[in-house]
Design goal:
CATH architecture of the largest domain: 2-Layer Sandwich
Number of domains: 2
GO molecular function, one term: cysteine-type deubiquitinase activity
CATH superfamily of the largest domain: DUSP-like
Number of strands: 9
Structural class: alpha+beta
CATH class of the largest domain: Alpha Beta
Pfam family, one: Ubiquitin_3
Domain DUSP: 7-118
Largest sheet: 5 strands, mixed
EC number: 3.4.19.12
Number of helices: 5
Strand content: 15-25%
CATH topology of the largest domain: DUSP-like
Radius of gyration: 23 Å
Helix content: 10-25%
Keywords: Hydrolase, Protease, Thiol protease, Ubl conjugation pathway
Distance between the termini: 64 Å
């Protein structure tokens, strides 16, 4: 924990100020910090010229990083809806986050809120921190009532999701599996391109994905896979 010395606080201020200007790069991880805590920290280190008079004052010492204001009650990873960048939270690159945690620690019982930088846009690509993840409902073909919810980045691949589902349902490594998109109308679409991302595959919030295990006799419970017909044809 960083106490006292103005030089220490000056170092904190200059280090974080520089890291806040880090350019977004696809695949990098950034972290959310509650704006209320961050504003208190800015006062303590004299970040802005008008806060210099409070620099090092123990009355404005921010204490451990506290992101509880960003989270739904009783959930260490679910963000409240409609949070706004710079109003409710600020984003720090990994190095900036690690430094703040080393100086102030993280409130007990909380976990870091880490998010990936993804590329967006059909023609003109731009990078953005994906603050809100896509929630998918996962189940097994033999028991579709047992649904497990997980959050994924739009940049995660079908292969990544399948591995996560296999882990959740303890499917042995040697077991062959297939993944299906289940629609409300009880129709199923095979997800057979492992390198496709969630974005590529057009998966949406609340989508149900079903994993199917091959029978011992080499057949599939759902029968042979047939590609979904293109509605435009």
């Amino acid at each position: 924990m960083a106490e006292g010395g103005a030089a220490d606080l000056e170092t904190q201020r200059t280090d974080v100020a520089a890291l806040l200007k880090t350019a977004l790069r696809k695949g990098d991880t950034w972290y959310l910090v509650d704006s209320r805590w961050f504003k208190q920290w800015k006062k303590y280190v004299g970040f802005d010229s008008w806060d210099k008079y409070q620099m090092g004052d123990q009355n404005v010492y921010p204490g451990p990083i506290d992101n509880s204001g960003l989270l739904k009650d009783g959930d260490s990873q679910s963000l409240k809806e409609h949070l706004i960048d710079e109003l409710d939270y600020i984003l720090l690159p990994t190095e900036g986050w690690n430094r703040l945690v080393s100086w102030y620690t993280l409130m007990e019982g909380q976990e870091p809120i880490a998010r990936k930088v993804v590329e967006q846009g059909m023609f003109v690509k731009h990078c953005k921190v994906e603050v809100y993840l896509t929630e998918l409902k996962l189940c097994e073909n033999g028991n579709m009532n047992n649904v497990v919810t997980r959050r994924f980045s739009k940049a995660d691949t079908i292969d990544t999701i399948e591995k996560e589902i296999r882990k959740i349902f303890n499917i042995p490594g040697e077991k062959e599996t297939r993944l299906w998109n289940k629609y409300m109308s009880n129709t199923f679409e095979p997800l057979n391109k492992p390198d496709s991302t969630i974005q590529d595959a057009g998966l949406y919030q609340g989508q149900v994905l079903v994993i199917e295990q091959k029978n011992e006799d080499g057949t599939w419970p759902r029968g042979p896979s047939t590609p979904k017909k293109n509605c435009n044809n």
